[in-house]
Design brief:
Belongs to the short-chain dehydrogenases/reductases (SDR) family. One of its GO terms (molecular function) is oxidoreductase activity. InterPro entries: NAD(P)-bd_dom_sf, SDR_fam. The protein has 229 residues and is an alpha/beta fold. The protein has a single domain, classed as 3-Layer(aba) Sandwich (Rossmann fold), CATH 3.40.50. It contains 7 helices and 6 strands. The chain has a 6-stranded parallel beta sheet, sandwiched between helices. The two termini are 22 Å apart.
Length: 229
């Protein structure tokens, strides 16, 4: 993966951080996105120490970002690197776990915005860069999308899969952008701990244990069938 430029959202912790480090260990230059700057800096320092490759940090709060913010992010990548080989969406908000009738409307809207609309807006802004060469677009999904009480989080993951399907159909003819979704399963993350505070996490995979799934997707050739898993 040497000379590849890869943008990972939610890279401050959890799966996003592990995917970023795995990409860097494979030789890629990673762009670390999140809103939590101290945690991003810690991931940055570890990558530099372990690989010698200098990543980039791009702090951005998805909840408050505007369309122009996403366009500026894409423009910065274009000016700094000249291309984008992959965009990996790992950022997510759990929101509120409750019956539909008890959902707080504000939290519902914020969760949908972070998990779905922000992913759409960032993808839209980055597509011109991705389409310049063979590239990958990966969304993170979740099996809980049809489960009771999972509220806007579950709805957003179902919608992300629909978005990926649309993009797959739209981009397939050009044969440049491979569109994939990954459900990493139950992983020991802060989001999982919030969803299941009473469960013992010792049996769960660590984020590093599932990062290989993303690396495997990035190793697909762009002349292979575009797939959504």
């Amino acid at each position: 993966m040497a000379e590849q430029i890869i943008l990972i959202t939610g890279a401050a912790q959890g799966i996003g951080a592990s995917v970023a480090k795995a990409c860097a260990y494979a030789g890629a230059t990673v762009i670390l996105h999140d809103k939590q700057v101290p945690q991003l800096e810690a991931v940055y320092d570890e990558i530099v120490e372990q690989t010698g490759i200098i990543p980039a940090i791009y702090p951005l709060d998805l909840k408050g970002a505007t369309v122009d913010d996403y366009k500026q992010l894409a423009q910065t990548i274009s000016e700094s690197f000249g291309k984008l080989d992959a965009l990996i969406h790992c950022a997510a908000s759990l929101g509120q776990l409750a019956p539909v009738m008890n959902q707080d409307p504000k939290t519902w809207a914020e969760t949908l915005h972070i998990n779905l609309t922000a992913a759409y807006l960032l993808t839209q802004a980055c597509l011109p860069l991705l389409k310049q060469q063979a590239s990958h677009l990966i969304f993170t999904t979740d099996a809980h999308k049809h489960t009771a009480y999972w509220g806007a989080y579950g709805i957003s993951k179902a919608a992300v899969e629909a978005l990926a399907e649309q993009l797959k159909d739209e981009l397939e003819a050009e044969g440049k952008v491979i569109v994939s979704t990954i459900d990493p399963g139950e992983v020991r993350t802060a989001l999982y701990a919030r969803a299941y505070p009473a469960r013992n996490p010792e049996h769960l995979n660590l984020p590093d244990d599932v990062a290989y799934q993303y690396i495997a997707k990035l190793q697909l050739e762009t002349n292979s069938p575009v797939s959504v898993d």
